[in-house]
Amino acid sequence: MTVEAEPSGRAWRFGAATMALATAFTVAACGSDAGSSPAPAAPGSHSAHSAHADAPVGPPQPLRAGERFVELKMSEAYTPTPPQGGGTDEYRCQVIDPGLTEAQFLTGTQFTPQNVAIAHHAIVYAVPPDRAALVREQDAKTPGLGWQCFGGTGVPGADVEGEDQGATWVDTWAPGATETLFTQDIGFKLMPGSLIILQVHYNLLATDGRPAGPDRSAVRLRLTDGTPQTRELTTFPLDAPTDLPCAAGESGPLCDRAASIADVTKRFGADVGESADRQVQECNPGGVPRPGDTQTCDEEVEEPMTLFAGFGHMHLLGRSIRVELNPGTPKAEVVLDVPKFDFDSQRLMKLPSPVDVGPGDTLRVTCTHDASLRRQLPQLKKLPPRYVVWGDGTSDEMCTGIMTVSPRKS
Fold first, then answer.
1. Of 164, 274, 290, 241, nearest in space to 399 by CA
2. 286-336: per-residue pLDDT in tens?
3. Which residues pair with 122 in a beta bridge?
4. CA 146, CA 236: separation in Å to the nearest integer?
5. Which of 167, 242, 265, 257 is nearest to 399 (CA)?
6. CA distance to 81, 161, 240, per residue, from 405 (Å)
7. Enclosing H/E stretch for 280
8. Across the strands, what pairs with 321?
9. Which of 3, 77, 304, 380 is deepest in the core (most CB within 10 A)?
10. Quick one: angle between helices 275-283 and 257-268, nearest 10?
């Protein structure tokens, strides 16, 4: 039946659904075949950012009863340029208004790049009507088409990270991906006035860092009115602290934890700057930081729900992420396992079968980062070493296991 109420509590702050259980989720790693688990990534492989060969998008699956396609395109073409200070990568966000006048369920998504030579990967976000003004303000105050972003929408209050989320991670694309197709009885609900944000990662490596022409990418939405039986999904985020000291042989002012937190606060504000200590208080016994490569956090389940799928989110120093149910008990079960994390292939992984959880159960997220990767990554190697804590920037990190779930009454 249709879910009308959402559980309350800290873990539900992501709001509406990120993604629904896909019957055919085929976002693939660069040059790999699609599958239910991520392709292995060599150390630092997500820093290579090699350009992709021409990979034409195939035709969509036929429309099912009650469905329609809505084709959305960037308002105008955008020509990416190398970032200041060197490098070959640009992350650009652009807003598109789908023009919805009534509630719709999103049952399929297909991102279509125009300039496949430089489109490395893309993420599709949905922003609800009550956060749309924040997005339009960001767009209006930024010169040119769209704005720079990394790891999220880059719009405070309308992002998928931090304490004040207001956006939903809808889909991820990489070359070779086909349409993300949901079952007809499951969907992501878009209300009138909702906006779509496209984050496109442009890579200029194939052109030696020189501009490679414009791009006017598009996204096709498969929409339906839904029925009384259509289930609206939500996301259950599981966050752990990031307390990654400087690697052996590194030194500098930002290798001090307090100095690094002060730097994050300066760049992103008090809300983000306070995240490191807040997460330590929530996750660590005694509220004491535990510097190291691996961090964990346990979340007690407060309301009945069913787990359908999930994906892990970290930044460029991420090595692995795992979500476990009731660890250390006879009922222990691994529900999400990404042993070789790749920033450029963060994709939904559906569970072999849905898992019901409820009060008395515990979910644990575990992330491992590697500070030594900083010396290998073009985006980071020229930056001063730092004690890495939670933050929105390229040089900061995150640890989030985002589970796609449906609330249950019992």
1. 241
2. 999 999 999 999 999 999 998 988 888 898 999 999 999 999 999 999 999
3. 173, 200
4. 29
5. 242
6. 39, 18, 19
7. helix 275-283
8. 338, 367
9. 380
10. 120
Helix, coil or strand: residue 248: coil
Query: Hunting for tokens 């924040």 — which residue is that?
Result: 134
Please state whether beta strands 362-369 and 294-300 pair in parallel, antiparallel, or not at all (unpaired): antiparallel
**3-state SS assignment for residue 240:** coil
Helix, strand, or coil (residue 158):
coil
CB 19 within 8 Å of CB 188: yes
Q: Which of 37-41, 69-73, 183-187 has the highest mean pLDDT?
A: 69-73
Tokens of 203: 């890579």
Sign of the C-alpha dihedral computed for residues 208, 198, 366 and 348 taken in this order: negative
Q: Are strands 400-407 and 234-239 parallel, antiparallel or unpaired?
A: antiparallel
pTM here is 0.72
Element (H, E) at 137: helix 132-141
Q: Give a three-class secondary structure readout of 162-186.
A: CCCCCCEEEEEECCCCCCEEECCCE
Residue type at 130 in one-letter notation: D
Q: How many residues would you count in the chain?
A: 410
b/e burial code for range 234-245 (CB count within 10 A of at least 16 → b) = bbbbbbbbbbbb
Phi, psi dihedral angles at 95 (to 5 degrees): -100, 140
Name the band, by pLDDT with cuts 50, 70 and 90, for residue 84. Answer: low
Check if the beta carbon of residue 111 is closer than 8 Å to that of residue 171: yes
- Could you give the strand order of the β-sheet that contains 294-300, starting from the edge strand earlier in sequence? 294-300, 362-369, 318-325, 333-338
Query: What average pLDDT does the structure give for the chain?
Result: 81
* CA–CA gap between residue 258 and residue 229 (Å, rounded): 51
Element spanning 132, H or E: helix 132-141
